[in-house]
Amino acid sequence: MYRPTVNSYFSGAGGLDWGLKEAKMKVVQSLEYDVKCCETLRKNFKHTVLSADISKKSVLDQAQSDVMAFTYPCTKYSTIADIHGSRTGDELFLHAFRHVAMALPEAFVIENVPGMRKFEIVMECFTKIPNYYINMFCPIDALNWLPQKRERLIIIGTRKPFLIEPPKANRRIKLKDIIQSGSIVDMPDYVYKRMNGHYRDKPIISDPEKNDVAPTCVAHYSKDVSTRMIKDGKIVRPYTVREYARLQGFPDSFQFAGSNNDAYRQIGNAVAIPVGRWIGQQLFKYFN
């Protein structure tokens, strides 16, 4: 059995890294710019964590690996960016492309939002790159495993032809299985204002007893916990940090650096762990 090595980039809190590790992949390096995320990575992993700006990082100075995995920021590719007039893409994908073109790993992985497909230049880079066979899946939904709707675009490139299998139907964890009933959560005044209709929209309230699923976990939850709430018996309240982490598949042993708001932001930006595990399982088959 060969454990393929992985370098991960834009690693965030390590959701993809953890999923790959669960699939017997060997993550040897994570590169991340955010200080709190780097602290989180060091709390939970033993591999090298590079706290660096990828745009200033030389490719050939880094440790080589069988796989390069990229989860560059999705905010400029998402439909919500249209509201703010910022759906422009960005140049960070070019640094992912630069790493693949310079290092020529045996395989590479791209994870992003489905909206990335609208950017022809980005898609051309990762689906037409010479000497790689491409498997693309969209959407891959975390709902296949978790009580959270979270659709993503996954691109897997390999040097040899290999059929990547899409996720099979799983027995999804239910929302009621992740709720800490009776939890006391801080309820700022703005939470009550949103619930009482003072804002443009009311919160999305999920009821575990009705087999509801949660909406997509977002990083903005760190600034406004009134947008997504859970019905906990007779009480409607925000999610606890641990519940929010469970929505993304993080084990309870996983530690997040910083405040609760730091944790919400890191969780909302993370790759859902079962998605990372599925990617890792497919790559493990490829190498073995």
Fold and architecture overview:
The protein has 288 residues and is an alpha/beta fold. The chain folds into 2 domains: 5-171 and 267-287, Vaccinia Virus protein VP39 (Rossmann fold, 3-Layer(aba) Sandwich), CATH 3.40.50.150; 175-254, no CATH class. The chain is built from 10 helices and 10 strands. It has helices at 15-22, 35-44, 80-83, 92-103, 120-127, 175-178, 189-195, 241-247, 260-269, 273-287, and strands at 5-9, 26-32, 48-51, 67-70, 107-112, 133-141, 151-158, 204-206, 228-232, 235-238. The protein has a 7-stranded mixed β-sheet, sandwiched between helices. The chain has a 3-stranded mixed β-sheet with strand order 8-9-10, with no helix packed on it.
Main features:
10 helices, three-stranded mixed beta sheet, 288 residues, 30% helix, seven-stranded mixed beta sheet, alpha/beta, Rossmann fold
Largest sheet: 7 strands, mixed
Assign a percent range to the helix content.
25-40%
- Using DSSP, what is the number of strands? 10
- The coarse silhouette is globular
Instruction: Count up the helices.
Output: 10
Please state the second-level CATH architecture of the largest domain.
3-Layer(aba) Sandwich
Secondary-structure class: alpha/beta
The string of secondary-structure elements, in order, is: EHEHEEHHEHEEHHEEEHHH
Spatial extent as radius of gyration: 19 Å
Residue stretches low in confidence (pLDDT < 50, at least 5 long) are 80-89
Q: What's the pLDDT, averaged over the residues? A: 93
CATH superfamily of the largest domain: Vaccinia Virus protein VP39
How many domains make up the coordinates?
2
What proportion of the residues form beta strands (DSSP E)?
15-25%
CATH topology of the largest domain, what is it called? Rossmann fold
- The order of strands across the largest sheet is 3-2-1-4-5-7-6
CATH class of the largest domain: Alpha Beta
